[in-house]
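PT: before anyone asks, these are the final sequences, not the draft ones from last week. 706 residues across everything. Please model them as a single complex and drop the result in this thread when it's through.
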Amino acid sequence: MPNIIKNKQVCDDSWQVWRETDILPSSGGYIVPLTLWKAHKEELKSLGSIAVFLASDESPKALADDIAELDLIAVDFPKFADGRGFSYGRELREQLGYTGELRAIGDFIRDQLYFLNRCGFNSFALETSDLEESLASFNDFTESYQAGIDQRLPLFRRR
Amino acid sequence: MYTYDHFDRQIVSQRVAQFRDQTQRYLDGKITDEQFLPLRLQNGLYIQRLAPMMRIAVPYGTLSATQLRKLASISRKYDKGYAHISTRQNVQLNWPKLEEVPDILAELLEVEMHAVQTSGNCIRNTTADQFSGVAADEVEDARPYCEIIRQWSTFHPEFAFLPRKFKIAVCGSESDRVAIMMHDIGLQIVHDANGETAFKVFVGGGLGRTPVIGSLIHDKLEPKHLLTYLEAILRVYNQLGRRDNKFKARIKILVRAMGAETFKAEVEKEWAHIKDGDLSLSNEEIDRAKSFFVPPSYKTLPQQDLQALALESADFARWLQHNTHEHKVSGYRIVTLALKTVGVAPGDITAEQFEAVADLSERYGFGEIRSTHQQNLVLPDVQQTDLFALWKELVELEVASPTVGTLNDIICCPGGDFCSLANAKSIPIAEAIQRRFDDIDYVYDLGEIELNISGCMNACGHHHIGNIGILGVDKKGQEFYQVSLGGSQGLDASLGSILGPSFAQDEVPNIIEKVLETYVDLRQPEERFLDTFRRVGIDPFKERAYA
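LR: through. Structure below.
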């Protein structure tokens, strides 16, 4: 069972990413593409626990009506320098009111954990040999100027 | 000036520690080159042709004497004893060692400086008029708002990996000295009929390979909405800006593709979610920012008769006319120090000059210095009765070339001598032009002319908005130069028109001479180069240049 970082701790995790866009998985426990979910909602729900990932060009607005039905939402980073997912995280939390597990998957790096966490991600399928060591990056900063999901007030309202 | 409190100090100090750790992990092989790239860029570090280049932030071009002395000592200790003022008012070191960069950052922190977001695909250093707070034509000081924007944009968690770099400029005067129309976002401070402050918001301007003049998308934004509106613009851009082609990734391309009206509608939709929320600026925060920029303790002085002062000497008179500007306070004058000595790269400054300017700023002012996007320095608060004494010291220091605003006040990027992106050298072109036009009376007769040189399409030398622009291009492995005419910055900004096929390096001074002769032949009394060009068009220039 692979390890991930969840709520700033390393833990076991059984979710798997399903990247096929026209074939359904045969059981629950998969994080499936948005298009597959949109086309086969009822069948996917009947499989048990189900999660959806957004590709970097898929706005979270597409999930506005589905949020209550999902056990987990993931955002896929095709390249770590593609920062769209940071906005998607905030939109899911702040505009769509999503409170469940929000996971970063794909090609992001340890040095982005602090910002990702501030944008509402609380789970990280980080590809590295040393997850424990990576946890240090959550503490790159202990204070920040901006509001975020972890701190709702910008610094100027607190200083 | 803005001074750090414990929050600012802690944030920048943690940044230094973060980059020290990242650099160590990179040197240990735990971070790949590709992963390290944006991390180092966002700390101002480029890997260039000859060595790393490090860009130190000078927020809105304001420096203290203490900071100048630190820059002098850093350039001596970690570099070759000189530095460079960039066209974004920043300071660049040309020869630092990668392993020593964390130490440089730690030293900068001692004087409340950093290199945060001076490069990379993030929100860059916000620029302002170099005469902010002292300009006679000022509507309102831009610096408090620049500082508010600096804090909001520093380590913004959502906008550190944008499609491309993002530049914001704020203009607080009637004449625009910061080229707001050429920025991703340009803000112009205006006062409405009731004297209330508001911002005109221009978006999608830019230079580079696709020069575009910004579009007005809000004509009266209240200050309390400043950050929510900026955040809405950035959020739209971060999600919709192109990422498939770095040459089409700037916001100007998005605004043009969508149309300014549609883009504005998207921004308004996003804005509706956050407008009047916690990010709205409180009066207390605006007042707090303003409290750092209250006018220094000026003396009550009578206005001097500058014509009478000028009688001291002919050289002084020339300098007085060209290198000083009107101050908003009676009895004071703004002085520009020209970093345009022939034979030295435009904008270069030695450690000794830094220290001397620091001393001068204390003796002839309140210990404050400005850097300009024309790559000069400014002493903002000089008493008029001190001007002659100051001038003599500036002459000694070789920063009194009386050419500010003339043909010889060339804006020039580092070019192929230093920069790995460049197609061609730019510094030798600047030098050749300065040498050709060394007759100061001829240069004065030509009047106000901006000549800008870039070594490649990236346009760091702002060639598109030079009255005369020169762009280095690569033609089958040879360095050639394309000339454009009629560009201008300011509120009536325009982009230059290309004269025609490009020229070899040694032809450039001849061509510039022909262009200037054409102007002299065709101008009407008192007509500036730009106005003559706008009146007669490019054809007469073309005919002469290619005859």
